[in-house]
Please model this.
Amino acid sequence: MSDLVFYTHPQSRGRIVRWMLEECEAPYQTEIVQYGLQMKTPPYTDINPMGKVPAIVHQGRVVTECAAIIAYLADVFAAAALAPPAAQRQDYYRWLFFAAGPFEQATTNNALGFVVSEEKQRMVGYGNLDLVVNTLARAVSAHPYIAGDHFSAADVYVGSQIGYGLQFGTLPDRAEFRDYFARLENRPARLRATQMDDALINKPV
Model:
């Protein structure tokens, strides 16, 4: 067994982690967890009690939550140079966790038809959808990549969220987002990851 096991489903946020693993060129073993009973019962819930994918087990230790997995892999597989030097990680951490927090909360709530009233917007971290969208649009157009002039693990997460949003209409179709995603979508690691997960979707269970 590999010392890095990746638990996923090809129609899940696990696609984000697959892309990151391919960027790292890390050896890993894939375990597909099916929606329904398998995902919600032991032994998988011994790994993630939430009954959600993705998760990784690396050298016997569990990491869940996409952004946490992305940041962890960037640190562990440092040779891939997917994180800026420690003293230069301000934008890296800022936008990685902005996308994992305010952005995903805002777009998910909007997709579910939940709109926070104006008087209660200060109670939620994202305020309102327009504020989040405009903030992210400025961020992705400030530099070639989200943390500056070089691709990083933060682009895997932010780019995945933007790519999904453009594909499924959960994000406004704006030039800033299209231009940013165009710089990411044909990366060899992303293409490999996409091909792997698409093949699993079409594979009989």
In short: The beta strands are 4-8, 29-32, 55-58, 61-64. The mean pLDDT is 96. The chain is about 50% helix and 10% strand. The first strand starts at residue 4 and ends at 8.
